[in-house]
């Protein structure tokens, strides 16, 4: 079932890129029209070229990997001409237990001066707290053998480049990579994929003069997943939370500002609701992990306790949130921002600009999740 639906996403992605095979121009009299509703795209003629760039051994041997010394950057993808990355697979052997936070993934489209993807590798693949957890979603997954997969389609009109940097102090002995892509002309309205990392360690708990949590109509102190200008649509987020105190860490409403910086256009009912769970994901003694196509919480450890850890994701593939001038996606940290927990997030969206200014990436030592007692 997963494979069939994933093919459906790929067919939809090709159609969005203008690369799906055209319907038959004519049919015999009396015969039914041969259109997309009759035959799936994968059994019809395609008009693109399938390619791959990988870490294969160029000598023909079996050393199909790249080592990454401390402080070094390697280029894992470089392609000229129009096309789109359709799938990324990585698996990593590293000395450091924190390598998912220490390795940084970056990507540039069409020779832009700034990257459109800049995030620790773990956060990009939904492992926001640096632990491997088996799960599958529509766009990201972690398979047995610590294999990382991404199915977001990443178009480019002129060129694409991707790197991995080791910000840690220990060598990555083996970085394995397979990046599948297609080469074909793209329609002019094909948008650029973006992924941005943010963290707050910790967030500041908001209290009024009377010591109570004030109302929060404008989201001023919310956690910000991303903020950008241009035209595009939001695809979703991954979030890791480390609790710095007892009790439920959620109840934070999602607030999305669309083309108006003064007030949110979309307001939800609580963070567990935004991630399409409910009731504290089951509570202090009954929380259960889950992972579905568009939502999940594949990691829940010591729920509602100091040191509790959560990894969650929510994608908007059913209804990408469109914007024409401005987007800011935010969420309260606790009801009215009354909690001081650590948040580590990655936001994914498509936009008409290949790059814009990202907030500076925090130093590697600050990216390692830990409890910060009040």
What is the first-to-last residue Cα distance?
46 Å
Total strand count, please?
Answer: 23
Q: How many domains is the backbone divided into?
A: 1
* Bulk shape: globular
What string gives the helices and strands in order? HEEEEHEEHEEEEEEEEEEEHEEEEEEH
Derived from helix and strand composition plus strand pairing, the structural class reads: mainly beta
* C-alpha Rg (nearest Å): 22 Å
Tell me the number of helical segments per DSSP (H or I, 4 or more residues long). 5
CATH structural fold name: Jelly Rolls
- The average pLDDT value, as a whole number, equals 91
- Measured by DSSP, the beta-strand proportion falls in 35-45%
Q: Going by CATH, what is the homologous superfamily? A: Protein of unknown function DUF2961
Amount of helix: under 10%
- Overall CATH architecture: Sandwich
Please tag this protein with its features.
single chain; 374 residues; mainly beta; Jelly Rolls; eleven-stranded mixed sheet; eight-stranded antiparallel sheet; disordered N terminus
Can you walk through the features of this model?
The chain starts with a helix and ends in a 7-residue tail after the last helix. The chain has a single domain (47-367), classed as Jelly Rolls, CATH 2.60.120.1390. The strands form three sheets. Strands 3, 5, 6, 11, 13, 15, 18, 19, 20, 21 and 23 form an eleven-stranded mixed sheet that branches. It has helices at residues 2-16, 99-102, 121-124, 271-274, 364-367; strands at residues 49-54, 66-68, 73-80, 83-94, 103-109, 117-120, 135-136, 140-143, 147-150, 154-156, 159-166, 172-183, 192-200, 223-229, 232-242, 254-258, 266-267, 290-291, 295-301, 309-315, 321-323, 326-331, 342-351. With 374 residues, it is mostly beta strands. Residues 1-11 and 21-29 have low confidence and may be disordered.
């Amino acid at each position: 079932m997963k494979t069939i639906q994933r093919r459906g996403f790929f067919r939809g992605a090709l159609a969005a890129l203008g690369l799906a095979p055209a319907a038959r121009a004519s049919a015999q009299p009396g015969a039914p029209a041969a259109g997309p509703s009759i035959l799936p795209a994968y059994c019809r003629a395609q008009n693109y070229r399938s390619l791959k760039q990988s870490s294969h051994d160029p000598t023909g041997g079996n050393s199909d990997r790249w080592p990454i010394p401390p402080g070094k950057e390697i280029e894992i993808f470089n392609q000229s001409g129009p096309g789109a990355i359709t799938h990324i697979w990585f698996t990593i052997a590293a000395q450091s237990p924190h390598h998912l936070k220490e390795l940084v993934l970056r990507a540039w489209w069409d020779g832009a001066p700034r990257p459109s993807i800049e995030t620790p590798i773990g956060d990009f693949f939904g492992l926001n707290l640096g632990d491997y957890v088996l799960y599958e979603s529509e766009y990201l997954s972690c398979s047995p053998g610590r294999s990382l997969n991404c199915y977001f389609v990443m178009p480019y009109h002129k060129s694409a480049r991707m790197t991995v940097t080791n910000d840690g102090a220990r060598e990555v002995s083996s970085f394995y990579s397979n990046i599948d892509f297609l080469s074909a002309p793209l329609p002019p309205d094909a948008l650029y994929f973006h992924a941005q990392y943010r963290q707050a360690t910790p967030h500041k708990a908001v209290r009024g003069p009377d010591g109570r949590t004030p109302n929060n109509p404008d989201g001023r102190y919310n956690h910000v997943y991303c903020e950008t200008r241009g035209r595009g649509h939001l695809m979703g987020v991954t979030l890791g939370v480390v609790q710095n105190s007892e009790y439920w860490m959620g109840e934070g409403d999602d607030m999305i500002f669309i083309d108006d910086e003064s007030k949110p256009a979309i307001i939800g009912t609580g963070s567990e609701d935004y991630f399409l769970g409910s009731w504290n994901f089951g509570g202090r003694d009954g929380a259960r992990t889950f992972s579905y196509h568009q939502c999940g919480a594949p990691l829940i450890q010591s729920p509602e306790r100091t040191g509790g850890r959560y990894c969650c994701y929510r994608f908007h593939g059913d209804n990408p949130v469109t914007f024409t001038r401005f987007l800011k996606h935010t969420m309260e940290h606790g009801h009215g921002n009354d909690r001081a927990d650590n948040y580590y997030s990655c936001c994914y969206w498509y936009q008409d600009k290949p790059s814009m200014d990202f907030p500076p990436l925090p130093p590697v030592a600050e990216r390692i999740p830990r409890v910060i007692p009040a």
